[in-house]
Specification:
globular; Maltoporin, Chain A; mainly beta; 18-stranded antiparallel beta barrel; 2 helices; about 400 residues
Length: about 400
């Protein structure tokens, strides 16, 4: 059961430090600065400098405000002998002109250490997240959360084309910490998750790998033990390196979710994680995403929901410096209610676009506009809004 933050953490850590015994792209090779064994890519940005017509996602009397997000961070890689250390630091300041109580500073720190012992490659790592943003699409409230992640694993190469990976991971979710924590959210969602993963992959071609992922997950809730659960997920799929014609990953499989309480329903079904990119001659890029999985609902009477989302973004270069961006996204939250009442399905839509100009290889200035809408049989959960503004980014 993952918030929007968790998939981001897992994705960054999985790509931040490649297994040294495998023939994969090392992200440190494209770092902006290299100082001996240290590689560094700084990131700076101003995003969403503009107007949000519904900052609280309200169904009635939406509130308009001027917003901005100031971001600073860095990706780092350090190689010393057989040890390979990678990390990512990000700090955001979210600004609201009128709603000063919504302003926040958010910090994320991630790190990972791989040790290449030729026959095996063990690793350890962790992350700390202190943020006051919406964890996922179910949330309308910006609530402070402090999440801590720790993991350890080992990769075992078998020949030149095959490897098997084992990992143990633990994450703690805390929504009550800090000045802007929320006791109601904490009561429903504070928990500790344990995840054990086994992954076997075979290099089918130099740029393509066939993978079978299997994981076992256990969630223990701090205040609502009736929500305690365990689940098993099996997901075969394929991974393609950035230099392939179509790059990214595509996984689809089955998940069985079992609760510890007879009052909370068990759920089983199809899950998926797809993110594919196609680039044509460096002048056109299209990225597609499809995700389907379970997550815990804020409402105890609705237990869990199945989230299914799909989206596409296309970028077209215009001349040497300009680009046009178009995007669309659709998501459905299918709630599994407790008792005989039929569950509801909320639907979200986003459509938008933008115009950008490159000022060198790392600096981009953009103008974007997005329209978002949510539909639900619960009138208090419906809303729509328009968000438009400019952005200036370096290193993204």
């Amino acid at each position: 059961m993952k918030s929007a933050i968790v998939p981001c953490i897992l994705g960054v850590m999985a790509s931040a430090s490649p297994v040294l015994a495998q023939n994969v792209t090392d992200p440190a090779e494209t770092a902006r600065f290299r100082l001996g064994v240290l590689a560094l890519t700084p990131r700076l940005g101003i995003r969403d400098l503009g107007v949000d017509t519904n900052i609280f996602n309200l169904a009635a009397e939406p509130r308009r405000d001027t917003t901005a997000t100031f971001t600073a961070g860095a990706d780092t890689w350090l190689r010393v002998g057989r040890a390979y250390l990678s990390g990512r630091t990000t700090s955001d300041w979210h600004y609201f002109k009128r709603a000063s109580d919504q302003r926040s500073i958010n910090v994320t720190q991630e790190g990972r250490l791989d040790l290449d012992l030729l026959r095996i490659v063990p690793r350890v790592g962790g992350a700390f997240i202190n943020t006051r943003q919406r964890p996922n699409e179910e949330f309308d409230l910006r609530v402070q959360q402090r999440n801590a992640v720790a993991f350890g694993g080992v990769t075992v190469p078998i020949g030149t084309r095959t490897r098997v990976d084992f990992e143990l991971r633990q994450q703690r979710y805390d929504y009550s910490a800090g000045k802007f924590g929320d006791t109601a959210v904490a009561s429903a969602l504070n928990r500790k998750s344990r995840l054990a993963t086994v992954e076997a992959g075979v290099n089918v071609t130099p740029l393509t790998r066939a993978v079978l992922k299997t994981d076992w997950r256990e969630d223990s809730f701090t205040y609502e033990s009736s929500r305690d659960s365990h689940s098993v997920r099996v997901m075969p799929g394929v991974e393609m390196q950035p230099f392939a014609l179509v790059s990214g990953k595509a996984f689809a499989g089955y998940r069985r979710f079992t609760t510890q309480s007879a009052a909370v329903p068990d759920v089983s079904g199809v899950v998926a994680a797809v993110e594919l990119k196609y680039v044509a001659a460096d002048v056109f890029r299209i990225t597609g995403q499809l995700n389907r999985d379970l997550d815990y609902s804020l409402d105890l009477d609705e237990s869990v929901y199945v989230s299914t989302s799909m989206g596409v973004e296309a970028v077209k270069a215009v001349g040497l410096y300009w680009d046009l961006v178009g995007r669309a996204r659709r998501a459905a939250l299918a709630y599994q209610e407790v008792g005989p009442v039929a569950g509801r399905t909320d639907r979200l839509w986003l459509v938008g676009g933008g115009l950008g100009r490159r000022l060198g290889s790392e600096l981009r200035v953009g103008l974007d506009i997005d329209y978002v809408k949510r539909g639900s049989i619960r009138t208090d959960r419906t809303f729509d809004g328009l968000r438009f503004g400019t952005s200036v980014t370096y290193g993204y």
